[in-house]
Each structure stands twice: as structure tokens, then as C-alpha cells.
Amino acid sequence: RKCFLPLLSGSRSSKTFKPKKNIPEGSHQYELLKHAEATLGSGNLRQAVMLPEGEDLNEWIAVNTVDFFNQINMLYGTITEFCTEGSCPVMSAGPRYEYHWADGTNIKKPIKCSAPKYIDYLMTWVQDQLDDETLFPSKIGVPFPKNFMSVAKTILKRLFRVYAHIYHQHFDSVMRLQEEAHLNTSFKHFIFFVQEFSLIDRRELAPLHELIEKLGSKDR
């Protein structure tokens, strides 16, 4: 089974956001994660996101989705003290984009809520999906469900909103904490990944369109 470990986001923020999602050591998914980390080290992100030869696309997307959840979790964990009911009464990504929460089961009609509440709902919802063995099987030979790709797309679309909120509302805090290089690298990796497999609709990416163009132009 997957195990939870407390997430330590460094001494800057003692507040743990969500537990880190661990991929079991010795599993094929763990090997894939190690492969991903090794290719990332080469510095060529376009190449690093490509499906390794002979690997299953669903498994590659699953491993990377877990990894992005952990990265975003850690990045948001460093700025939670600045993202409050008072500073962020609505979940937004700049003045033109506001997000209302619904998960289709517990909350069917979208509700307007503060950014910290929205992100808490979102990350808890993602964590529940990742922990569901019928959606994200961790055992070799257990097939992925037929709807896996649409589940992964929804998760990644929602995780993008956390990046968008951090960039639009908290980038000054990120700069003060000297986290901008970490945030930019993580986001660039995320964007190249979703572009490689067409996982997020362009309209959904609109709040960070200019940044995405800038990051992409450096690698053409």
C-alpha cells in the first residue's frame, strides 16, 4: 500500500499542508519516478517529459501526476501563511479568473469560497483520487480504469489552478522566500508535461498564457 509521510516544507513554514504521497519503493512506478528524476537532471525538460520507450502511457501519467501533486503541495505549503481568508477571500488567478468549487459528489453546485478553503478542498479531493486503488493502481498487473485519462485530466486541470493562484496573488511572497526558481522549474515541467500529452485545454491555461509562452519560447 502507499504510505503517507508528513511533508516538511523546510524551516520557512512549519505548517504542514497535506501529507506527501509516496510511491512504494521497489515498484515499477518507483522505477519510473527515478527515471523521470534522472532525465530531469539533464536539464532538457521537453525530453524529460516524453514517454520512455516501451512504457505504458497511463502509468507514466499516473507517476507524474503524483509527483506534481507533491511538488505543488510543497510549493503551496511554503506560502500558506500569506494565503488567508482575509488576503484571498475568493479563489482567483488575477482579476479576470475566479474559481468556484464543486467535486460532483459532496458538493454538486459550485460554491464560492476563499482561496485557502478552495485549495484545501482541491488538494483533499486530489489526494482521495490518488489513494483510490481502482483509479491509481499501485500493484503491477492491475489495470488502469477505462476513464483514467479523463480522471487524470481533471486532476491536472485543477492542480494548474494552484500554480495560477500562487503566480497571480503570491509571487511577491515567493520572491521574498527566494523560491521563484523552484516555482518556475516546477511549473515549466508541469506545462511541458501537459502539452506533450494534450492534457489541459488551452482555455484553462489562459490565466498564465503569457508566462507559458515565455517559458516555451526559451526551449524552441
TrEMBL record:
<keyword id="KW-0418">Kinase</keyword>
<dbReference type="InterPro" id="IPR036703">
    <property type="entry name" value="MOB_kinase_act_sf"/>
</dbReference>
<keyword id="KW-0479">Metal-binding</keyword>
<feature type="binding site">
    <location>
        <position position="88"/>
    </location>
    <ligand>
        <name>Zn(2+)</name>
    </ligand>
</feature>
<feature type="binding site">
    <location>
        <position position="83"/>
    </location>
    <ligand>
        <name>Zn(2+)</name>
    </ligand>
</feature>
<keyword id="KW-0808">Transferase</keyword>
<keyword id="KW-0862">Zinc</keyword>
<feature type="binding site">
    <location>
        <position position="170"/>
    </location>
    <ligand>
        <name>Zn(2+)</name>
    </ligand>
</feature>
<dbReference type="GO" id="GO:0016301">
    <property type="term" value="F:kinase activity"/>
</dbReference>
<dbReference type="InterPro" id="IPR005301">
    <property type="entry name" value="MOB_kinase_act_fam"/>
</dbReference>
<feature type="binding site">
    <location>
        <position position="165"/>
    </location>
    <ligand>
        <name>Zn(2+)</name>
    </ligand>
</feature>
<dbReference type="Pfam" id="PF03637">
    <property type="entry name" value="Mob1_phocein"/>
</dbReference>
<protein>
    <submittedName>
        <fullName>MOB1A kinase</fullName>
    </submittedName>
</protein>
